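Thread: Newbie trying to understand structure tokens

Hi all, I'm a second-year student working on a class project, and my supervisor (Dr. K.) asked me to get a predicted structure for one chain before our next meeting. I've only ever worked with sequences, so writing a 3D structure as a token string is new to me. If someone could post the tokens and maybe explain what I'm looking at, I'd be very grateful. Here's the chain:
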Amino acid sequence: MSQYLCPECGYRYDERHGEPHEGYAPGTTWEELPDTFTCPDCAVRVKADFSRLED
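---
Reply by user tm_fold:
Sure, no problem. This is what the structure looks like when written as tokens:
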């Protein structure tokens, strides 16, 4: 599973952990997130702004 980094605040979305308090269960892949997904920490960056981290 992969991780994705917010360039604004450094938040990492980890597919293994999901983001349960935002409604995304553990195991939710990046592709399954809606295009309207915004960073849960800073709310400044959208999904397209995130970069995938090397596995």
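A couple of things are worth pointing out once you decode it. The CA atoms of residues 3 and 53 lie 6 Å apart. The chain has one domain: 3-53. Feel free to ask follow-ups in this thread.
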